[in-house]
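For this section, I looked closely at the sequence of one protein beside the tokens encoding its backbone, which the following lines show:
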Amino acid sequence: MFNYYMNIIIKPRTEIDLPSIENSIRFAFTQYDKIIFTFDLTETTVFNFQCLLKILPLLKKFEDDIELKLEKSFIILNHPWKKALLVLFFSFYKPKKPVEFIKREAQNQGFNSKVLL
């Protein structure tokens, strides 16, 4: 059996729909043992600190899975203010696994990629 990571791409549209994101994350953790999350926030226009704080219970809910199955996360951004807001958020919530910011998504999402949202 191959020992590879599944790249799970979560791409919310205008606003971050937490129930849909929760379902996507739950699906990923139940289906795969090794995961890399890619959060594409390039189309998200409703994005503020309050919205990010609502993510904390979701992170707490999946804490064990994050420890066991997540390798790292990528966050795709196209605006510097979104990155600044996330850096501020991560100063309050220290990620359990590495998080990398990237400016745009590669054309080829890879062999082991699945877009969930």
